[in-house]
Automatic annotation (TrEMBL):
The lineage of its organism: Bacteria, Pseudomonadati, Pseudomonadota, Gammaproteobacteria, Pseudomonadales. Residues 77-279 form the Alpha/beta hydrolase fold-3 domain. It comes from the Bacteria. It holds the Pfam family Abhydrolase_3. The active site is at S151. Coiled coil: none annotated. GO terms for molecular function: hydrolase activity. Keywords: Hydrolase. InterPro entries: AB_hydrolase_3, AB_hydrolase_fold, GDXG_lipolytic_enzyme, Lipase_GDXG_put_SER_AS. Belongs to the 'GDXG' lipolytic enzyme family. This is Acetyl esterase/lipase.
Amino acid sequence: MFARSLTSHAVTRFLKHVVKPLLMRPGTDIAALRRKAVTLSEGLARMPREVRVCNGRLDGIPVKWLYSEKSSADFVILYLHGGGFVLPAIKPHYSFCGMLALKTHSTVIMPSYRLAPEHPFPAGVEDCLAAYRWLLEHDYDPAKIIIAGDSAGGNLTMTTVLGARSAGLPLPAGMLMLSPALRFEEANSGSHQTNRQLEAMLSERALMYFKESYMPEGKTPSHECMHPLEADFTGLPPMRFYVGSTEVLLDDSLLAAQKAREEGVDVEIMVAEGMPHVWPLLDVLPESVPAREDVVKFINSLWQDIRPLYAVPRR
């Protein structure tokens, strides 16, 4: 039997008794909800001291650039943060992106894509695709780009790559998804039922709020954006999924990985026993260490044949 750390039990209790109730009653004051999310996340992760964060813009879209002294300007991770399509990037996102920049010697770009409900679908995915297109138009090699994201950002990772393919753009080297939300459907079966009482963070009420904010009634999203698991995965880049065994979104990753495997995509999935939603982001968890190490190993494996011995440093 896998023995969870005492820290993971404490963090799970915090998520279940503080964060989950907050998300169960989002109300109409979205600004207050966003401020609260930022505040509550402060103690869940730490930012590497060696990493710098700078503001920038790609095609008018605000972005954060994260890099260290050893980061290459040529190797890029486009990171699409989660938050139910309504919340901004918070401390764990910066911590995880900082770790990626430090451990993979890459530059991480995190777009501040437009958020629902003020900017419902397709604003978010349009911004993410525009950021990727900007990189290509400015001579970034797609073989040196990886697109990654967590939760809603995992959805945006999948739909951005599918959108790039539909637009005839070259695809990135790989895709990394942490607890992605890939199915917009009624929560009446599968892991939504079996894990409802075990889920530490996301209630069905919160998931419904996120869905209705992102895709309000009357919107007619494209097939691939509404149901990415029904898209053709053939020819997509290598994928890695990370998900906790007690998440209501467990089946999203399991089904996506199974589909990718059946359609010839290089795919692996890590299912961590008892871990909460997007646990690799929470570096206070000892259990996040092996997940982060696996993420770094995956990214480096995609670049090992094209990365020079001494990468070109940022200027």
